[in-house]
Structures are given as C-alpha cells and as structure tokens.
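In line with agreed milestones, work has continued on tokenised descriptions of protein folds. One protein thus recorded appears below exactly as we store it:

>
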Amino acid sequence: MSTTRVPTTRAGNAPHVAKALPVAMLAFSLLAGACAEDTTTSTAGEDAAIEGISLGLAYEGSAYEGSAFDALPTPEEQAGLAYMREEEKLAGDVYRAMFELWGLTIFDNIASAEDTHTAAVARLLDQFGLADPAEGRAPGVFSDPQLQDLYDELVAIGSRSETDALIVGALIEELDIADIRERATDDPAISGVYADLERGSTNHLRAFVRQLDRRGVRYEPDHLSQEAFDEIVTTNAARGGGRRSDARGT
C-alpha cells in the first residue's frame, strides 16, 4: 500500500498555504501513480451516501440564526471570514474541474456542498457589511494570490490521474479543517458557521480517504495531528446540528 505525505506549509497570513506545496505534491503524486490501478468507481449506494453527507447542512435554524450583527468582528475575524470565503470557493472550483476531467461522482456531489459552504460565509460578510472577496469572480479566479497559486497547482496535480485527484480532495479538506480550527472565535454567528463548515469538511475528508483506501493508497495527514485525523476517519458522518449518521457507503 502506498502512502501519501504532505509537508507542513505555512506562509504569512495564509496558514497552511506555501510556495513549497506544489513541489511536494508533485513528489507524492508519483507515489500515487505507482500504486493500484485507477479502476475503482463509485457504486450507486456510495453516491447516495456521499450526497447525503455532503448536502445535509441545513443553515436555517442553526445556532447562529437570528444573531445580532450590530458589532463588527475583530480585524482578525474579518480577515478569517474573507479567507474562508475564498478557500471554500477554491474547494468547489477544484472539485468541478476534477469532475469534468474524471467524471467521478464524489467530486460533483461534494462541489455542490462547497457551494453551500461558501454561500454561508458570503451571507455573514453581507450581514456584517464587509466586502466579499469572491463576489463576481469566475470559477478558478481568486483575489488572494496564494489561493490563486494553490488552485492552479492543485488542478494541475489532480489532472495527472484519478488517484491524484482524490489525494488533492483529501488535502483540501484537511487544510479546510485545520484553517477553520485555527480561526476559532467566540463570536456566535461566526463560530456557528465555522462549526457547520467543519462538520462538512470532516465528512468530505472521510469520503476521499475511503476512496483512496479502495485504491490501495493510505493517506497520512500532515496539517492535522494523527490523533485528530484518526478520530475523523473512524467516526460516522456528522450532519448539521451535530447529528451523526452511518456513512457506510462512503
């Protein structure tokens, strides 16, 4: 069984995104190409389960509904919202590119969930009266230059093979979880959205890892601790509001 490794990468105010990432990703993509052949496809049951855990984020009625927006977030919280808005957009844009290239249903289903994620952050920006860095930007286009570079490199790497595309998916979700946790806040509106985003990302990471397992590739975390990663991949799928369901199809 091949093993993927992603180096710890940090750059300026954009945690976990660095110029060194593409070189390292290219190196382990060669490992993936040497493992089991890319013959595994999603089953109907698996597709249904992935869709269920990906789209089951109901923002209406969440803990932050009706929260007051009379006070602006701190500068750090504002920067975090802007970054997460584009990072969630990046996930959806990469997954759509991978679906168009490889036709794997997991990418189409999870891309739809990422639309919900990035829209939730956009609503917060609007309610706080903050500028939306992703407004009017086409797929694959970002205002943050580091996210732009990351998108370009991830799409290039994911275009090498189906297995590389799934590795890219797992990496994106691991980065999302790490970035959300790093931006933890006491603001009830922001923390409510971030909690829902993290639930979705843990479901997506679990789905990508299981797809890789079926191809004989063991994904090892670098941006999350081994303990945190193991807890995610061995736990049943989380739904909005903290409910959990059996995700045996993913």
Observations:
- The helical segments are 21-33, 44-55, 75-102, 105-127, 145-158, 162-182, 188-214, 226-233.
- Residues 75-102 form the longest helix (28 residues).
- The longest strand covers residues 2-4.
